[in-house]
Design goal:
The protein is an all-alpha fold and 85 residues long. It contains 4 helices and no strands.
Length: 85
């Protein structure tokens, strides 16, 4: 439950238990929490594990989804991102 106290979902803790070298595919219906899960996971990688945001690659079906994810993560990470985000 330490993850919940830090603001991370149990799903993020599950993703975190996977090797960070492996690609991860997140599938789900609209409104199922994919963006929240991914943004929590990216924030955890950047803030807790020291991964630079430029090392994170996320593919989304639309530019609108990419922009939403970038905006959500951008305000929560401790490391500035470059314009490629």
């Amino acid at each position: 439950m330490a993850d919940a106290a830090q603001g991370y979902s149990s799903d993020v803790a599950m993703l975190d238990s996977l090797s960070s070298a492996l690609p991860v595919v997140v599938l789900g219906a609209p409104g199922s929490g994919k963006t929240t899960l991914l943004s929590d996971y990216i924030v955890r990688l950047v803030n807790d594990r020291g991964v630079h945001p430029d090392q994170v690659r996320i593919l989304t079906p639309t530019r609108q989804q990419a922009t939403e994810l970038r905006d959500v993560v951008g305000v929560r990470v401790s490391t500035p991102t470059r314009g490629r985000w």
